[in-house]
């Protein structure tokens, strides 16, 4: 006899103000993350980013504009001898806060997508040179090794889900 399962509690919450969705609207395009990777690697000038990442000029222009408009990067003027003033792109504090996210994605890629020789980059603590990794801990300090140990609960900004919201999203 088949067992019946109840609906997931999340169906009671609206996703209209989901911060994960909002973050992915900024970060969810491949080239955006590639630009961030380059800047984290210290590649900050437009032509260097374009050449190193193999990006089309217009795509890079658009991604840099988005990252600047979202406050993740800021433009810093520089001028090489005999040339016009140009800009390089530096991480803001808001942009630097993305490092654990990019490290977590890299760790996942290293485990599942690396070449047989291993991952192309390694991350180390500047002070001691030991490898760096991302881990999940609760506020009480417990390390969570299994993603299934994390439960999603309604937060302070939760809104109730209503069918008209779903119909409106479907029209967009």
Could you characterize what this model shows?
The protein has 172 residues and is mostly helical. The protein is 40% helix and 9% strand. The protein has seven helices and four strands, in the order ααααββααββα. It has helices at 19-27, 30-40, 46-53, 57-69, 93-96, 99-112, 163-171; strands at 73-78, 86-91, 136-137, 143-144. The strands form two sheets. A two-stranded antiparallel ribbon has the order 1-2. The protein has a two-stranded antiparallel ribbon with strand order 3-4. A hairpin with a 7-residue loop joins β1 and β2. The chain is globular, with a radius of gyration of 21 Å. It starts with 18 loop residues before the first helix and ends with a helix. The mean pLDDT is 92.
Please provide a brief summary of the model.
With 172 residues, this protein is mainly alpha-helical. 40% of the residues lie in helices and 9% in strands. Strand 1 and strand 2 form a beta hairpin.
Secondary structure elements and pairings:
Blueprint: H1 19-27, H2 30-40, H3 46-53, H4 57-69, E1 73-78, E2 86-91, H5 93-96, H6 99-112, E3 136-137, E4 143-144, H7 163-171
Antiparallel strand pairs: 1-2, 3-4
């Amino acid at each position: 006899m088949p067992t019946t399962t109840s609906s997931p509690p999340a169906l009671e919450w609206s996703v209209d103000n989901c911060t994960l969705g909002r973050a992915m609207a900024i970060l969810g395009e491949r080239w955006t993350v590639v630009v961030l990777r380059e800047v984290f690697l210290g590649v900050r000038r437009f032509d260097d980013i374009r050449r190193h990442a193999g990006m089309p000029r217009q795509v890079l222009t658009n991604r840099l504009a988005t990252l600047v408009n979202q406050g993740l990067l800021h433009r810093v003027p520089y001028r090489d001898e005999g040339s016009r003033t140009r800009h390089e792109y530096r991480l803001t504090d808001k942009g630097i806060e993305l490092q654990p996210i990019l490290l977590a994605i890299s760790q996942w890629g290293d485990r599942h997508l690396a070449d047989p020789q291993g991952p192309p980059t390694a991350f180390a603590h500047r002070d001691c040179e030991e490898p760096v990794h991302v881990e999940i801990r609760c506020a009480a300090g417990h390390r969570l090794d299994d993603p299934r140990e994390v439960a999603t609960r309604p937060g302070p900004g939760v809104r109730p889900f209503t069918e008209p919201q779903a119909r409106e999203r479907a029209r967009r």
